[in-house]
Prior knowledge:
Helix content: 40-55%
Distance between the termini: 114 Å
Largest sheet: none
Structural class: mainly alpha
Shape: rod-shaped
Amino acid sequence: xxxxxxxxxxxxxxxxxxxxxxxxxxxxxxxxxxxxxxxxxxxxxxxxxxxxxxxxxxxxxxxxxxxxxxxxxxxxxxxxxxxxxxxxxxxx
Length: 92
């Protein structure tokens, strides 16, 4: 008796080694996602790529002021308020 005959393996008649898997009946533990599973995962990956690309485009449109710009605007606002009559520094 050979090793493949003892384990239940053999060939399918075409010369392919089955590795002990019974090819005559449908085994639900040996089912793979196949082409449809690959296409679904590829579509999700492509959609994710497009979403990230769009997000980066939208984020790049946002203008964030620098610290120096904020301080300069606050200083200008304080000076303008001090020059106005009735401003925060006006005497009563």
